[in-house]
Automatic annotation (TrEMBL):
UniProt record similarity statement: Belongs to the NmrA-type oxidoreductase family. Isoflavone reductase subfamily.
Membrane spanning residue stretches: none
Isomerase in keyword set: no
Protein name (Swiss-Prot/TrEMBL): NAD(P)-binding domain-containing protein
A molecular function (GO) term: oxidoreductase activity
Domain of life: Eukaryota
Taxonomic source organism: Neocucurbitaria cava
Keywords: NADP, Oxidoreductase
Length: 347
């Protein structure tokens, strides 16, 4: 039987699964096409900076990872195969954030959620980190590749005592730009670019830093509904938290790269590919065992003419509600370039 949940006025205790502090190396491979796990590092940074929460990071019992020295940070070493170990680590927390790599065992997310329910956690940010929810998702919920994102929400919905807030952030900008051609179409190191169609279709994309700010800002709010229109965590209960850094096209990305690198289009080898053909090619590669096909198809799908990659136009982002800053595109691009220069990406 699940532990009885008590409503809290403010979230004080936050558990975080999947934090990593990677160096930029070729180990960032296509089995992890959206860099899940690394986002936890940025969430932890901003949660600790706010000073409003005690954060418990769950890590494997044999992990050698080191973490920042902070009075509000606890590290709990757990056996992920043991429900008892997970429940013990999660007990006393009000909110759980899950950030897992796609190479994590397929049952692991559901097992962590079930343990959270038994531990008395009230709300979970599942391992979603994708496109918009509700009417913003369009045909993506039935796409054979992207419909799998919904299973993370389904894991939470199985437990009626649990609630969720899904962070809808699109693809992570600096990661996606730095990873290589199968992602945003750019090989920064070798100065090649593949434009989907004409390269002018805009999608929403978000930096790791903006995601971290968004989570910290959300969890700093009171939990129960407030009078007078004041914001509360419950305003997003069982919904998507839609944030974004930029609504941009591949053309915008290349323009930014040119400004940062001091290059022009003449310094790049630019090719064009029909986005539908690229998606099909990616799916065929995936089915043949080539894991880069996963990234190629997934990224191409968000650039379809049907427009699901743009979850901002015609809707309201939550950036303003959370007080998120307007970011500088070239600064974000510069970070991606520095990542590439440091060895980040698929090789």
């Amino acid at each position: 039987m699940s532990t009885e949940h008590k409503q809290v006025d403010y979230i004080r205790n936050v558990a975080l699964v999947g934090v990593s502090f990677p160096t930029y190396s070729p180990s960032h491979h296509p089995n992890n096409p959206q860099g899940s796990g690394q986002i936890g590092k940025h969430m932890l940074k901003h949660l600790l900076a706010g000073g409003k929460h005690t954060v418990t990071v769950l890590t494997r019992s044999d992990s050698k990872a080191s973490f920042p020295s902070d009075a509000n940070l606890k590290v709990a070493k757990v056996d992920y195969s043991s429900e008892e170990s997970l429940v013990s680590a999660l007990r006393g927390n009000d909110f759980l954030i899950i950030t897992l790599s796609v190479v994590a065992p397929p049952t692991q997310h559901g097992e962590i959620v079930a343990a959270a329910a038994k531990a008395g956690v009230h709300c979970i940010m599942p391992n979603y980190y994708g496109f918009g929810l509700g009417e913003r998702s369009g045909k993506l919920t039935s796409d054979p590749l992207l419909s799998s994102f919904g299973r993370f929400l389904a894991d939470v919905k199985k437990h009626e005592e649990l609630h969720y807030v899904a962070l809808c952030c699109g693809f992570w900008y600096e990661f996606s730009l730095a990873m290589g051609e199968p992602w945003y179409g750019f090989d920064v190191k070798n100065r090649t670019a593949t434009f989907y169609d004409e390269g002018t279709r805009k999608i929403n994309t978000t930096t790791w830093e903006q995601c971290g700010r968004a989570v910290a800002a959300l969890l700093a709010l009171p939990v129960p509904k407030q009078e007078g229109g004041k914001l509360a965590v419950q305003d997003w209960e069982n919904q998507g938290l839609h944030v974004s850094s930029f609504l941009i096209s591949q053309r915008d990305m290349l323009d930014s790269l040119n400004r940062v690198l001091g290059t022009t289009d003449k310094d790049w080898t630019i090719t064009y590919e029909k986005v539908g053909e690229r998606y099909k090619k990616g799916m065929e590669e995936l089915q043949s065992g080539n894991r880069t096909g996963f990234a190629k198809a997934m990224y191409a799908r968000l650039f379809f003419e049907s427009g699901e990659g743009d979850y901002e136009t015609g809707h309201e982002l939550d950036n303003g509600k959370l007080g998120l800053p307007k970011e500088d595109l070239d600064e974000a691009t510069k970070k991606a370039v520095e990542m590439v220069e440091g060895g980040f990406g698929y090789h």
